[in-house]
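Morning!

This is the sequence you dropped in the shared folder:
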Amino acid sequence: MDSIYELPNGTLKNLLGITDSEELKQAEADMSFTNLMYLQEDLAKECDAELLKKINQCLFGDIYEWAGEYRKYSVRKEEDVLNGDSVRYTLPESIEDELYIVTDDMNNYNWKNKNIDEISEKFAYYLAKIWKIHPFREGNTRTVLGFAEIFAKEHGFEMDLSKMIDDLERIEDPETGEIKRYGLRDKFVLASLDNEDGPEPEHLERIVRKSIVSGIEKKIDELEDLLDR
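The structure's back. Tokens below.
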């Protein structure tokens, strides 16, 4: 069923002509992380589903022909933090409608006059809902991060994206393979669980809060520099 996206050996079809999944993973990481750090702010017209599509295209358009398009099939991904179970992602036919519902709620929420804990909790909640929809075949976590940075700036609070990228990858013991720190994707998984499964949003909230605090501190430093000139 996934033949429109994958080569016979399971490697994602790509514009780079790479047929090895590990080589593709590294190339994808190098290119998309660079694009993520320099994502054009002029993308921010409306922080809605269309913006998510534009971000995915900007991050992965040099790698995948289908970048920026909603996935066409259901997906199941075994998660270590769920003992091999998968998140119940949105069905393809419902992706666009659900994205617009979530982003409309985000845009209509009053972000002003809230303390940092309230902002962090609500922002993590909404980001987890977008991530759970999993609109694209590849790159959903990085696409959500790009959206988060733009949305924060458009809605009056700062966010230091580098702090979230610092937590993107898992850290494992090179000898035993033991997981020393779970990655950002694992935290999205835990935050996006259905209520009956016992969601654990606090892991994601802590990273979101750290990013916002760092963003505020950087903004203060910039303003102090202006005053000192």
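Headline: The chain has eight helices and two strands.

More detail when I'm at my desk.
O.
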